[in-house]
Design a protein that fits this description.
Immunoglobulin-like, eight-stranded antiparallel β-sheet, mainly beta, 0% helix
Length: 137
């Protein structure tokens, strides 16, 4: 968005566009993750939308890692992640979207425990599949 003007309407919540090299297929892996807090008393809902999913095998047990910082160029292995969110894609390999109810409610704000501006990694078997930065949606 430039100078507060955009043709795209806000959907609320947070979004991350993930880009990366698919380790299993050798193809580029692109995905979009949206995070929403629908009601005050329920956990955050995540939707992962995949591009060209038919090119990728089932990823199986995966995890979303929300890091402490927003640096895509460097990762401190000694620093614990802000959030580690496990899920699986066994049953979603033929689908373009995976809906996940997270185990807890995330702070979709900035600073403190907020996730805006932080790096997010999609991982499988300790391999990074794709990464991006979480922003406002």
């Amino acid at each position: 968005m430039c100078h507060g003007h955009s043709l795209r309407e806000s959907e609320g919540g947070a979004i991350a566009i993930l880009r990366g090299q698919g380790r299993q297929s050798g193809a580029l892996f692109n995905a979009k993750i949206t995070l929403k807090n629908l009601d005050d008393d329920i956990p955050t809902q995540a939707t992962i939308l995949f591009e060209k999913t038919n090119r990728f095998p089932s990823l199986g047990a995966c995890a979303l890692i929300i890091h402490q910082d927003g640096n895509l160029n460097y990762e401190d292995p000694a620093q614990a992640p802000l959030h580690h969110i496990p899920f699986d894609l066994y049953n979603n390999q033929a689908c373009e979207a995976c809906n996940v109810s997270l185990p807890a409610r995330l702070d979709l704000g900035v600073g403190g425990q907020g996730v805006i501006g932080r790096k997010v990694s999609l991982m499988n078997s300790r391999q990074v599949i794709a990464e991006g930065i979480i922003g406002w949606n």
